[in-house]
């Protein structure tokens, strides 16, 4: 089942993105552990190397994105009042760059919505973040002339082969709950959208990872059948930042 597809390229005047606050530092991944930590070997000057510990802003398994010995890029935060002065931002897998910092997905979508870079979501007068719905929150609430649209963003990074990216890379009861909430909003007469921000530069399509979380996949298919729109946009990624590139196919 194909929920949506196309290869519409966002016009240049709608380009929107997130730039890194300072140049990224290249390194070699030693290990990722305890979910939120990664040891990375980086240059220390005069031909020396050192291992630093970086914050890993990714709650998933990072399957296909965290192979020891792989090239990675860290964002330094010298002088910042934080426990770890590095954040792991990018990884290279199969020759393609992947943004492993899942917080970037919502930041990028916020910029893209404000700039009109997502064609299907243009024309709204008000854009709000973290909208309370029931006992949880939906990432974005859009409004125009009495119409309300709710948008939940999921950042997809797992390589499923053949240009396909899959989500999730770990069981996510929270993700399934969000999908069910979107379906309920649609039944109440609102527009509801599940937007995959595909943070792999080599992605041609995205699908639910039923082999990892069948409950999530079933919830997404059920929601789509009830009228929830399922969209996906792939990112252009380099060491300067991220940009919304184009819409890609969602295969349910």
Explained architecture:
With 252 residues, the chain is α+β, with helices and mostly antiparallel strands. The chain folds into two domains: 2-18 and 102-251, Trna Endonuclease, Chain: A, domain 1; 22-99, OB fold (Dihydrolipoamide Acetyltransferase, E2P) (Beta Barrel), CATH 2.40.50. It contains three helices and 18 strands. The chain has a seven-stranded mixed beta sheet with strand order 2-17-16-14-11-10-9. A six-stranded antiparallel beta sheet has the order 5-4-3-6-7-8, with no helix packed on it. It has a five-stranded mixed beta sheet with strand order 1-18-15-13-12. Strand 12 (158-161) and strand 13 form a beta hairpin. The longest helix is centred in the C-terminal third of the chain and has 15 residues, at 173-187. It starts with a strand and ends with a strand. The model is unreliable at 4-14 (pLDDT under 50).
């Amino acid at each position: 089942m194909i929920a949506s597809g196309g290869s519409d390229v966002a016009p240049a005047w709608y380009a929107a993105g997130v730039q890194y606050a300072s140049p990224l530092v290249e390194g070699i991944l030693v290990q990722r552990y305890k979910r939120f930590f990664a040891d990375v070997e980086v240059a220390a000057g005069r031909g020396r190397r050192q291992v630093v510990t970086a914050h890993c802003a990714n709650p998933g398994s990072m399957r296909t994105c965290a192979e020891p010995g792989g090239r990675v890029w860290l964002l330094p935060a010298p002088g910042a009042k934080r426990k770890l002065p590095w954040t792991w931002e990018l990884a290279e897998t199969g020759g393609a760059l992947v943004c492993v910092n899942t917080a970037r997905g919502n930041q990028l979508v916020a910029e893209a919505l404000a700039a009109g870079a997502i064609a299907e979501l243009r024309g709204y007068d008000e854009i709000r973040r973290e909208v309370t719905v029931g006992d949880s929150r939906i990432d974005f609430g859009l409004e125009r002339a009495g119409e309300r649209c709710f948008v939940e963003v999921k950042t997809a990074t797992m390589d499923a082969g053949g240009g396909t990216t899959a989500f999730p890379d770990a069981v996510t009861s929270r993700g399934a709950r969000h999908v069910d909430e979107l379906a309920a909003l649609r039944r109440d007469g609102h527009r509801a959208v599940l937007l995959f921000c595909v943070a792999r530069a080599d992605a041609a399509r995205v699908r639910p990872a039923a082999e990892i979380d069948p409950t999530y996949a079933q919830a997404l298919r059920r929601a789509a059948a009830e009228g929830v729109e399922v969209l996906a946009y792939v990112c252009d990624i380099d060491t300067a930042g991220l940009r919304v590139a184009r819409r890609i196919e969602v295969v349910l």
